[in-house]
Amino acid sequence: MGGAELSKYTMPRVASWPAHVAAALSRLPRVPLVDGPSPVQELRRLRDAIGGGPRILVKRDDALPFGFGGNKVRKLEYVAGAALEAGADTLITCGGVQSNHARVTAACAARLGLHAVLVLNGERPAVPRGNTLLDTLFGADIHYVDSREARAPAMREIAAALERDGRTPFIIPVGASTPRGAIGLARAVEELVDQIPAPDVIVHATSSGGTSAGLLAGCELLGLDTRVVGISADEPAAALAAQARSLVAGMGEIADFDGASVAAARPVHIDDRFVGPGYGMPTAESLEATSLLARTEALVLDPTYTAKAMAGLIRGVRDRRFRADETVLFWHTGGLPGVFR
């Protein structure tokens, strides 16, 4: 049978943070949004359907219970912690109309009793659906702009207006892809190796570099040989790799490690061949991946990120880029409300 959750790894964990990093991490302000580890499951039926190959696991961050889940919940734990430390009463962030990050930010603000302002590029929907419906339910104020380039200026203008009114806004960059946000994914690697032996490969969706940075830094600092492969949802591979390295360097400044050395210690594998016609636009391979996962494992992918990342994993298996004796883990970063847009 496929999709069964793996038993907890009961052998003593051999991977641990260097003592000075552990101490620094323990001092970082954090809002507890992740109540327990997300499940790890084996995808045996998918493996059979694509002709065998490596063992395939999935880390189910889509199943995190807070705010409809996803990897952004892990990032917001540390970013919202910094906002509270700064005395913020308003969280301002941006994204596309169906932004998962904006939705989790709105949920986080609601949980903390803060105000949320979202700047979304795209047309205001006649009837809110998917993430925009949830944004509204969580009580966020939504501002629509024409383009990605208009988002940052709009956030600054809104922040300035709030400050004039005596408020304390806190701007969160797109995707919460900051060094603090990436810390949340580094800590998730620690969670993973408490559940199972470290996989040979982690495949995940990437768009703003924060998840890649966190997984890379986590694997390096915990001494794992795991290869981290990001499948781009939109940006060129070189730009995403550079962004990930920059974020790892920044993580070092707040977590007491040599960020530049950690960033340079291993290659940043980004594959941008699965973007297709553009961000959020399906491809034949992403549609096949969505159908295969649903019909073999009853596992749902989102159309913008995880469908394209799984398409990359499936192609890798078919092209024999993974050895048959390897374990490949797919990090499901969530985004399921986008299915209902």
Explain how this protein is built.
The chain is of the alpha/beta class and 341 residues long. It is built from twelve helices and ten strands. The strands form two sheets. The chain has a six-stranded mixed beta sheet. Strands 5-4-3-6 form a four-stranded parallel beta sheet, with helices on both faces. Helix 5 links the parallel strand 4 (115-121) and strand 5 (141-145). Helix 7 packs across helix 8 and helix 7 packs across helix 9. The two termini are 32 Å apart. The mean pLDDT is 95.
Tally of separate helices: 12
In total, the number of strands is 10
Low-confidence stretches: none
Average pLDDT across residues?
95
SSE string, helices as H and strands as E:
HEHEHEHEHEHEHEHEHHEHHE
The rounded Rg comes to 19 Å
Multimeric organization? single chain
Percentage of helical residues?
Answer: 40-55%
- Shape designation: globular
What is the element layout, followed by pairings?
Elements: H1 19-27, E1 40-42, H2 44-49, E2 55-60, H3 71-85, E3 90-96, H4 100-112, E4 115-121, H5 130-137, E5 141-145, H6 151-164, E6 169-171, H7 179-195, E7 201-206, H8 210-221, E8 227-232, H9 237-255, H10 259-264, E9 269-271, H11 284-297, H12 306-318, E10 327-332
Parallel strand pairs: 2-10, 3-4, 3-6, 4-5, 7-8, 7-10, 8-9
Antiparallel strand pairs: 1-2
Helix pairs in contact: 3-4, 3-7, 4-5, 7-8, 7-9, 8-9, 11-12
